[in-house]
Amino acid sequence: MTAGELTIVLAAVLCAVGFAALVVVLLRVHDTLRAIRDEVDALRQETRPLIADLRVSTDEARDAMHEAQRDLARFDRVLGSAEAISGAVSGSGRVARTALATPVIKAAALASGTSRAAQRLTRRRRRDDGRDDGRDERRDGRRDGRRRTASNVIPWRKGA
User: Fold this and answer.
1) CB count in 10 Å sphere of residue 84
2) Any residues with CB less than 8 A from the CB of 128 and at least 6 apart, and which?
3) Does residue 106 form part of some domain?
4) Is residue 87 part of a domain?
5) Both ends of the chain: CA-CA distance in Å?
6) Cα separation of 99 and 92, whole Å?
7) DSSP assignment of the chain, as one string?
8) Contacts (Cβ under 8 Å, ≥6 apart) of 145
9) Is residue 112 part of a domain?
10) What is the pLDDT of residues 49-83, one digit of tens each?
11) In the chain, which end has fewer C-beta atoms inside a 10 angstrom radius, N or C?
């Protein structure tokens, strides 16, 4: 055998060994990929129910959020209506107070004046008929002879 032939045989043997090593590495990679594929399948089997539950929970949360937004919008409308009603009632109360204050005060004054006039007429009749009970020396039923005024009727005023 010549040196050229020896080199070719040696190269063929080295290629065969290299090819055998490559086949062994590829078989190991193939086994590893199969194991990884099995693990991924198992992981998918475990996560599918969890993902389904997550979707259901997300849908429920979305529905609850939309319902809360509708309730908030409705509450906002109710609050606006309540503010409008409050403003209208406040304004109408002010208008009613303004419109009725003067007539009510005048009616109270008329009633008070009428009762005083009736008391005086009754006293005059008693005095004229001779049924004097001694009240004519007192003014407005007070024993001290003073007339009823704001200063001696209202307790927090001076002179009471």
Assistant:
1) 10
2) none
3) yes
4) yes
5) 152
6) 10
7) --HHHHHHHHHHHHHHHHHHHHHHHHHHHHHHHHHHHHHHHHHHHHHHHHHHHHHHHHHHHHHHHHHHHHHHHHHHHHHHHHHHHHHHHHHHHHHHHHHHHHHHHHHHHHHHHHHHHHHHHHHHHHHHHT---SGGGSSTT-TT-PPP-HHHHSTTSTT-
8) 137, 138, 139
9) yes
10) 999 999 999 999 999 999 999 999 999 999 999 88
11) N
Tokens 């004229």 sit on residue: 128
42 has a pLDDT exceeding 60: yes
Tell me the one-letter amino acid at 91. Answer: G
Q: Which residue has the tokens 């409050």?
A: 86
Residues in the chain: 160
> Can you give the residue range of the structural domain that contains 89?
3-130
The answer to whether residue 151 is domain-embedded is no
Over residues 110-149, the pLDDT tens digits come to: 889 899 888 888 887 777 776 655 554 445 555 555 566 6
Number of domains forming the structure of the chain? 1
Q: Which two tokens stand for residue 54?
A: 């997550």
Structure tokens of 85?
């009603």
